[in-house]
């Protein structure tokens, strides 16, 4: 029994020794196995991750290829639209050229009318000067004629008086020599005067009665005294002879005067007609201008109050009787501030005031096209949004081309054209947000996010998006 026990003990010892040897040799192998299993598990996980990434990459590649194909198609459509836009621009340029020609023709016609008006004014001044000269001549002629008539009447009275005195004197028959001498004196005058003087002398001789003197009266008469009286009478008669040429001159001057008065009346009537036409034109211009002014002023007040959320604006004639000579005063009152004129406003306030006036003018007389260069540069975020929404909603049937770097301005655009520069080459990117949303069924927020992403990248490369 003891031997069996000892053998069993030896067997146990040997088993223990074998186990120890096995454990000594298997320990590193187990550790290595665990390490390999761990590495295998990690590699399997990494492999699964790579497979997932590969699958995702393949899906992304497929999506990118589809997006690229769509972009190529969209680019082709955009190029076609650009061609159509170019055609429309060419047509608009033709229309603009025609409008410009009409405007230039109207300006030229206006200049001609102004020149004609100036000529008429000059002619009216000349006519007034001639009229005054004719008036002065008329007065001079009137005074001269009055003096001539007065002088003539005096001479006629003297002639009548002397004839009466001669009729009361009896004379012997006058010999032919005296008649010849008188005839020679008369011949020195003009032919017309001679004829009239001859008729007058003949009339005098016919009406002259030589009285018959008594013997006593004849005794007191002497030949010398009679000859002396006769010579004296002849001398006085020659001095008293009327100048019939002055009467003819007066008649001629009177005819000229009446002709000039008729011309003056004709020219004065034409002047009055032109002045009346000018007055009516000025009145019509003032009425039309005032009608437009009242509409623009009322709309300006409304627009400025809406875009400034409580401000006020006013247009006022500097001279209410003649607004064309002095002009119009434009004053605004920004929200919660006092009234100011344009030169005392800040940059943003000037921008809002100017845009309000432009929109008021557009309301009165719409224009088909506006080009605005960074009108939002001096505005804050709120005012940029107000102006952008007004342009978007209120200005229908009008095209606005706006150069802007503010996203809350160009996010509302119907068309975007990004301008950027790479490698010293300027390029452009056209983009149609509405067409993009319609094709890819993207919500508005996603579209705005896409616009922001693309335009931000382009802006970093000196992009200036233009709203159309």
From TrEMBL:
Q: Which residue windows does the record flag with biased composition (Acidic residues)?
A: 174-190
Signal peptide location in the record? none
Q: Where in the cell is it found?
A: Nucleus
User: Which InterPro entries does the annotation name?
Assistant: P-loop_NTPase, RecF/RecN/SMC_N
Q: Which keywords, in A-to-Z order, does the entry hold? A: ATP-binding, Cell cycle, Cell division, Coiled coil, DNA condensation, Mitosis, Nucleotide-binding, Nucleus
The protein's superkingdom reads Eukaryota
Q: Where is this region: Disordered?
A: 173-206
Q: Could you tell me the Gene Ontology terms of the biological process aspect for this record?
A: cell division; mitotic chromosome condensation
What GO terms fall under cellular component here?
condensin complex; nucleus
Q: Give start and end of each RecF/RecN/SMC N-terminal domain.
A: 45-422
The UniProt entry's coiled-coil ranges are: 4-172
Q: Which GO terms describe its molecular function?
A: ATP binding
Similarity comment: family membership: Belongs to the SMC family. SMC4 subfamily.
Protein name, per record: Structural maintenance of chromosomes protein 4
Per the UniProt record, the source organism is Dermatophagoides farinae (American house dust mite)
